[in-house]
Amino acid sequence: MLIVISGTPGTGKSTIAKAVAQRLGYNLVHLSKLIKADSSLELEVSIREINRLARHSLMDNTVIESHLAHFLASQRIDLFIILRCNPIKLVKRLEKRGYGKQKIYDNVMFEALDGTYLEAIERHKNVVQLDNTASPNKTINHIISLTKNNPIGHAPKIDYSKYIIRIQRQFKR
């Protein structure tokens, strides 16, 4: 099985992907590391370049993670997981990383607007969104169970749009 984990920065992709890969005995590919390792790439990377870099990683028994992973175009991907996080908690996570105020605002609003999830479902059928705000272990166990069952329809709808006004006020927009 080939699993892709994507989501807004700060939703827990690296942590969850590492644990899932370890539990399943799968290879783990950090797409962002592949991008950084390619010195020919500029600060912004195209979808074509993302797919070129990942093409050798698209194999069974692999977990690929990145905030850009949902742009992978392969039909070989068995399960797309979009990790979600409550935008108010996400602010705190991104502050701990030292993100600037504008970058935090942009990422938190993208999360509140379902940005990564909407981009993923435009491209793929087998997308499941999971809330990783409170319990990484619950998220890990849920992903493991999805690898054993048909994943479609097993996750609740996540809607953080109610936080948009609160975020705008917090960031004085």
What does this structure look like?
Helices cover 45% and strands 14% of the residues. The chain contains eight helices and five strands. It has a five-stranded parallel β-sheet with strand order 2-3-1-4-5, with helices on both faces. α1 packs across α7 and α4 packs antiparallel against α5. The radius of gyration is 16 Å and the shape is globular. The chain starts with a strand and ends with a helix. The model has no long low-confidence stretch (mean pLDDT 89).
Give a quick precis of the structure.
The protein is an alpha/beta fold. It has helices at 13-24, 31-37, 47-54, 87-96, 101-112, 115-123, 136-148, 164-170, and strands at 2-7, 27-30, 62-65, 79-84, 127-131. It has one domain (2-170): Rossmann fold, CATH 3.40.50.300.
| Strand order, sheet with most strands | 2-3-1-4-5
Indicate the proportion of strand residues: 5-15%
What is the domain total for the residues?
1
CATH-assigned fold name: Rossmann fold
What is the CATH superfamily?
P-loop containing nucleotide triphosphate hydrolases
Q: List the total number of helices.
A: 8
Form type: globular
Kindly report the oligomeric state of this protein: single chain
Instruction: List unreliable stretches of 5+ residues.
Output: none
By secondary-structure content and strand pairing, the structural class works out as alpha/beta
Radius of gyration of CA atoms, rounded to a whole number: 16 Å
Secondary-structure element series: EHEHHEEHHHEHH
Helical residue percent? 40-55%
